[in-house]
Structure to design on (120 residues):
């Protein structure tokens, strides 16, 4: 839902270049960055909140949290850079956008699952 609203705001706020129907670009369909940042912030906040409330946080949850943070914030950007963009810095195509978004969504969902496990 957030992705749809974000796209709508981009669509509604941009001027339409002459000869085109809209001002959207392929880059506007990349949502994985937003999803990974959301996952990192939400997971970190849930772990800190749980510890402040003296709730036990298991080793598995901490391990998943660290894995998600490293994968999403350090590894995935480099993978996307190497696989989704050509040498000129242009996106290679829609299939690359879909794959990047799918992996971002997987990271978001795994961090949500880890957060739910903390509050289980």
């Amino acid at each position: 839902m957030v992705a749809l609203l974000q796209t709508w705001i981009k669509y509604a706020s941009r001027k339409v270049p002459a000869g085109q129907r809209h001002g959207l670009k392929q880059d506007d369909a990349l949502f994985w960055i937003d999803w990974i940042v959301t996952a990192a912030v939400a997971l970190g906040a849930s772990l800190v909140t749980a510890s402040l409330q003296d709730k036990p946080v298991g080793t598995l949850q901490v391990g998943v949290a660290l894995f998600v943070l490293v994968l999403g914030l350090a590894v995935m950007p480099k993978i996307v850079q190497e696989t989704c963009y050509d040498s000129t810095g242009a996106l290679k195509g829609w299939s690359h956008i879909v794959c990047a978004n799918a992996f971002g969504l997987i990271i978001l969902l795994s961090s949500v699952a880890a957060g739910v496990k903390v509050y289980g």
